[in-house]
């Protein structure tokens, strides 16, 4: 993604899909778009992290239960 300064108006070239055709996007809009993308990515990452934590907690609980069972048998 290259940024092109055209006088006072700032533009950015945005590649579109598979083809190499590039469309000119106003820099302000482009910035806003990029920020939204980053926010979405961060949210997704946070969700993933939360899921991972939950999984780990479940695993630990399972191990704890198993150990408890074995002790009670003895």
Summarize the structure.
The protein is α+β, with helices and mostly antiparallel strands.
Would you write up a description of this structure?
- The chain contains one helix and three strands, in the order βββα.
- By secondary structure, the chain is an alpha+beta fold.
- It has one domain.
- Strands 1-2-3 form a three-stranded antiparallel sheet.
- The longest helix has 47 residues.
- The radius of gyration is 25 Å and the shape is rod-shaped.
List descriptors.
single chain; 74 residues; alpha+beta; three-stranded antiparallel sheet; 23% strand; rod-shaped
Order of helical and strand elements: EEEH
**What is the tally of beta strands?**
3
**General form:** rod-shaped
What is the overall pLDDT average? 77
Give the domain tally.
1
Write the layout of secondary structure elements.
Blueprint: E1 2-6, E2 9-15, E3 22-26, H1 27-73
Antiparallel strand pairs: 1-2, 2-3
